[in-house]
Design brief:
The complex is a heterodimer of chains A (260) and B (282). Chain A is an alpha/beta fold and 260 residues long. In chain A, 51% of the residues lie in helices and 10% in strands. Chain B is of the alpha/beta class and 282 residues long. In chain B, strands 2-3-1-4-5 form a 5-stranded parallel sheet, sandwiched between helices. The chains are: A alpha/beta (260), B alpha/beta (282).
Chain lengths: 260, 282
């Protein structure tokens, strides 16, 4: 009905930095992998910026309140997440990319594409909604069967399923575990389509953590082949600077914390 | 939107658009009074007044954390919340909904702030088209005087975020000038009914009523011919609703809907009787 989306989705962004995102259902282990990647990149001397889905100060409280009182409809759910994303893109993702840093994002717009579709939101509408976004340099998708993610969530650190995470708002089942299974398997189905549409890099998330991380680092190394961090984007440089002036390191780090 | 059922919206949706300070709210109050005296159920809904978002938007405007995208999206979320929790339920129960500003305000403001025109239209693609849009049209000089006389100029209404002028007054003139220019374009594109808002308030009110009246008549005659059908339709709808909408909307909108239904019964029963026409409900 409307002209085709003039898509930012197929062309690479023009900025000197690199944007690496992870996707996957809850319990796929994507956050673990991303934090290991971050550790490694930092140890290599890169300056890394990390940002997370639904974390902007602007709407975080509203989403929380909306979820708690269960007044969120599929539409407002979708729009709130888009607002959060827009705010983080503008304030957190674009500046470091322009400055030539590496930005790591735990979940990206593909999460919205998958979840909103399951909640009955139109595919094309949600893609147009996010058309201001930029294409990541690498988008990892951690593919995992429902049973594995479920057991990780129930036996792991959280030991509890959340209402919207289990898709309880869709009334699929009164049993939260059942609902989680139905909802997340639909999300998996959507992710499979998205992987093809946007060419995400699929990872086998049933492998051991270190095996997965090795593959992740290999892929990132290749992608960083052409990447030249600007002088001054090395995290360690600060210390060298202070040493040159013969100032004790404690004072140097003091200055560092002051500036934050 | 696929999951939103728009069937059986018997009410009428009337939007009043126009720049900040043109007098929309005052006129809407009078219109509500006028319609209620005639026996119509009326629901007024205003920009940023949703339960979900009003606080968020207010606090966002306090700080310097708004970028053009999230600015638009905050308003879109507010609108979506009101659409699903107020406007649609009210229309379904036969209310006349008076909207103080509608999606066109978002179109205008966002284009002025440099957002992509197509994008903002796409974002609001889920909205329902009003039965009537009245545009209170004014020139920027008259508007400036009126605003200074009433509540004074403020930061956002002067577009100070866009640094268009050195002080509040200059910025207001430039910003509202752009807004009016864009409103004029949108008015033509979407076929607004233009009302000259430079005239005295009672003349404006009269002009608004003259434009609303035909819309009401249209609705009523339709309703009469479909009196029986309507009852059956309503029953079927309720059933369908129960099945289809069990999931997303729960606790919060039920009371509103019920209250709306209760109140709606009154006007539909009494209004035709007043005009000495056969009562539809027998």
């Amino acid at each position: 009905m409307t002209p085709p989306i003039k898509s930012p989705y197929d062309s690479a962004h023009p900025y000197p930095g690199k944007l690496i995102v992870v996707e996957g259902i809850d319990g796929s282990g994507k956050s673990t992998q991303l934090s290991l990647l971050r550790k490694w990149l930092e140890s290599q001397g890169y300056n890394v910026f990390f940002t997370e889905w639904n974390s902007s100060a602007l709407v975080k409280e509203t989403t929380k309140r909306g979820k708690k009182t269960k007044v969120l409809t599929p539409l407002t759910f979708s729009l709130l997440h888009a607002t959060d994303f827009a705010n983080r893109l503008y304030h957190q993702i674009l500046p470091p990319l322009k400055a030539g840093m590496i930005v790591l994002a735990d979940r990206y717009m593909y999460t919205a594409f998958a979840r909103d579709a399951v909640r009955g939101i139109s595919h094309s509408w949600v893609r147009r909604l996010y058309s201001f976004a930029i294409k990541p340099d690498i988008a990892f998708y951690f593919r995992v069967p429902i049973e594995v993610s479920l057991s990780r969530l129930l036996e792991g650190t959280r030991a509890e399923l959340k209402y919207y995470e289990a898709g309880m708002d869709l009334g699929l089942s009164t049993n939260i575990v059942e609902s989680f299974k139905i909802f997340q398997s639909r999300v998996l189905g959507e992710y499979d389509k998205i992987v093809e549409e946007f060419g995400l890099t699929v990872m086998d998330a049933t492998l051991e953590i270190d095996e997965q991380q090795e593959q992740v680092r290999d892929i990132v190394t290749k992608a960083l082949d052409t990447y030249k961090p600007k002088r001054g984007t090395h995290a360690k440089r600060e210390k060298l600077f202070w040493r040159r002036f013969g100032i004790p390191e404690s004072e140097g780090t003091q200055g560092e914390t002051d500036r934050h | 939107m696929a999951y939103l059922s728009l069937k059986g919206l018997k009410g009428k949706l009337i939007a009043i658009e126009g720049p900040d300070g043109v007098g929309r709210s005052t006129h809407i109050e009078s219109l509500q009074e006028w319609l209620e005296v005639q026996g119509y159920g009326v629901l007024t809904t205003g920009w940023t007044r949703s339960e979900l978002m009003s606080k968020t938007i207010a606090s966002a405007k306090q700080g310097n954390i708004l970028d053009p995208w999230s600015y638009s999206l905050l308003y879109a979320t507010d609108f979506a919340d009101r659409l699903e929790h107020q406007i649609i339920p009210a229309l379904r129960s036969g209310f006349i909904v008076l909207a103080d500003r509608y999606i066109y305000t978002a179109f205008v403001r966002n284009v002025v702030r440099g957002c992509d025109r197509q994008w903002i239209h796409d974002v609001f693609g889920f909205a329902i088209v009003p039965d009537l849009v009245c545009y209170l049209r004014i020139d920027v000089d008259t508007l400036a005087l009126r605003v200074i006389e009433s509540k004074g100029m403020n930061y956002w209404e002067s577009g100070m975020d866009m640094r268009l002028g050195g002080d509040l007054y200059d910025s207001f003139k430039k910003y509202q000038g752009l807004i009016i220019e864009e409103f004029d374009k949108v008015a033509e594109e979407f076929g607004f009914q233009v009302v000259d808002a430079r005239r005295p308030p009672d003349e404006i009110q009269e002009a608004l009523r003259a434009r609303i009246l035909p819309i009401l008549k249209e609705g009523r005659s339709k309703r009469e011919s479909k009196a029986v059908e309507k009852a059956a339709e309503k029953a079927a709808e309720k059933l369908a609703e129960k099945v289809a909408e069990k999931a997303p909307e729960k606790a919060s909108d039920k009371p509103v809907e019920k209250a709306a239904e209760k109140a709606a019964d009154k006007p539909t029963e009494s209004a035709p009787a007043k005009e000495k026409e056969p009562a539809t409900t027998g």
